[in-house]
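Support request from a user on the community tier.

User writes: "When I paste my structure tokens into the form, the page sometimes reloads and wipes my input. The last time it worked, I copied everything first. Here is what I submitted, just in case something in the input itself triggers the reload:"
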């Protein structure tokens, strides 16, 4: 999660909402990324999707079984769908996303019975650090606008 927070901070410095993600299998980083929909002109370029693309390219496979995703913010609907299709085994996220979180805040997609793949989810790892990074980012953004 520390690496995901570092990636999130990097994205924040570039003006992106500071969210970072890392995909790991057996202690080895397979893929990583941070939010870049603004700079990439890509609405799908959330940190999780960027990390999935990176890992899939490195592995030569769109399926990533037996992997864990560490992400600094609760995934949204789009990202949960992609994680399920990629067969990610575990998602560990830091802070809840009360407005658009699709793991427990607004939806519980990891628990949806209609999917043919189940993801184990854990929350709260380094949540305070992630929340502070987001709060600082948005406070600075509001300050610049005024």
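"...and here is what came back when it finally went through:"
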């Amino acid at each position: 999660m520390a690496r995901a927070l570092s990636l999130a901070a990097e994205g924040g410095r570039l003006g992106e909402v500071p969210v970072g993600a890392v995909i790991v299998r057996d202690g080895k980083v397979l893929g990583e990324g941070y939010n870049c929909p603004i700079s990439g002109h890509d609405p799908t370029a959330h940190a999780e999707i960027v990390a999935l693309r990176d890992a899939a390219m490195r592995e030569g496979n769109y399926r990533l079984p037996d992997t864990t995703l560490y992400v600094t913010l609760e995934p949204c609907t789009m990202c949960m769908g992609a994680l399920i299709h990629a067969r990610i085994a575990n998602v560990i996220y830091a802070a809840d996303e009360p407005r658009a979180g699709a793991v427990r805040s607004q939806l519980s997609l990891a628990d949806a019975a209609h999917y043919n793949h189940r993801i184990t989810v854990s929350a709260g790892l380094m949540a305070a650090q992630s929340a502070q990074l987001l709060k600082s980012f948005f406070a600075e953004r509001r300050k610049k606008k005024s």
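Agent notes: The reload is a front-end session timeout and is unrelated to the input. The helical segments are 2-13, 37-40, 47-59, 77-85, 127-145. The mean pLDDT is 96. Escalated to web team.
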